[in-house]
Every structure is written in structure tokens, then in C-alpha cells.
Amino acid sequence: MRVVIALYAAIFVVSSRKQYINVKGTLTCDGYTVENAQVELWEHDIFTPNDLLASTPTDILGAFELGGEDNELMDIQPFILIKHFCNAQPNCPRETKITVVSTPIKEEIQRLPDIDLTNLREGEDSSCYEKTTLP
């Protein structure tokens, strides 16, 4: 059994390749920028827990920039997870997940279109959502 595990480990090391993901974007809510939202860059794994590659809060203009890398046999499946209070109940942050694309070039940065957090996205948990109306 140990030989089989060692063989699989050796195949993984030889076959895996380093893959990169660099993203930048801006968050908005009801037309305003979202400051201090937590943006996390993750890589989805099938058989093991997902890998957190990087995280950062958005700046005063709602902007963020994240980068990471991972060794995988298959193409990586990166996504960003945004924890925010846009149209959320008090003390109940919403979590919005957005799929992004990896790149073979380490220095290439993927510029995302502005991300509007005002409404729920498909698959998003609605338990913290509370649509507010601005005066």
C-alpha cells in the first residue's frame, strides 16, 4: 500500500504544473463603491479542501487586486469570495462567489468588470439579504 501511495505522489509531482491567477476589480452597491469588503481568492479542489490563495479588503474606492498560484494536475478552478454588507441584515455579512479564469502567464492581470453587489446572484445564500431603499 505504501508503494502505491508513493507512486501516486511521484506521478503528481512530475505531472502537476504551476498555474497563476491575478485579478483586479471594483465593487459597487446601489451605485456606490464598497469600502472594506473582504475579497478572497480561492482555488476549487474536488478531493481536498479548497485552497485560499490570497485575501484583501477593498480600498476607499471599492478596488481590490489579488494574485496567487497553485500546482495542480488539471486546470485550476479559481473563484473570488466577497464578504460584504451590501443590502445585508445587521451583523450578517453576505458572501458572493464569482468564478474567474486562470492564466498561463504569471504577470497577466485579469481586469474584471465592475461587480455590483446590490442584488443576489444565482446560488447565493439569501439568509442575510435585505433589500434596502435609499432615500
CATH class: Mainly Beta
What's the architecture in CATH terms? Sandwich
The overall pLDDT average reads 87
> In DSSP terms, counting alpha (H) and pi (I) runs of 4 or more, how many helices?
1
Protein architecture, described:
There is one protein chain. The protein has 135 residues and is mainly beta. It has a single domain (18-116), classed as Immunoglobulin-like (Sandwich). 10% of the residues lie in helices and 41% in strands. The protein has one helix and nine strands, in the order αβββββββββ. The strands form two sheets. Strands 1, 2, 5, 8 and 9 form a five-stranded mixed beta sheet that branches. Strands 4-3-6-7 form a four-stranded antiparallel beta sheet, with no helix packed on it. A hairpin with a 2-residue loop joins strand 1 (17-29) and strand 2. The N and C termini lie far apart (67 Å). The model is unreliable at 6-13 (pLDDT under 50). It is found in: Secreted. One of its GO terms (cellular component) is extracellular region. Its main location: secreted. Pfam families: TTR-52.
Question: What is the gist of this entry?
Answer:
With 135 residues, this protein is mainly beta. Helices cover 10% and strands 41% of the residues. A hairpin with a 2-residue loop joins strand 1 and strand 2.
Which descriptors would you attach to this protein?
single chain; 135 residues; mainly beta; Immunoglobulin-like; four-stranded antiparallel sheet; signal
Element layout with pairings:
Blueprint: H1 2-15, E1 17-29, E2 32-33, E3 38-43, E4 51-57, E5 63-72, E6 78-84, E7 94-99, E8 110-111, E9 115-116
Parallel strand pairs: 1-8, 1-9
Antiparallel strand pairs: 1-2, 1-5, 3-4, 3-6, 6-7
Main location: secreted
GO cellular component, one term: extracellular region
Family: Belongs to the nematode transthyretin-like family.
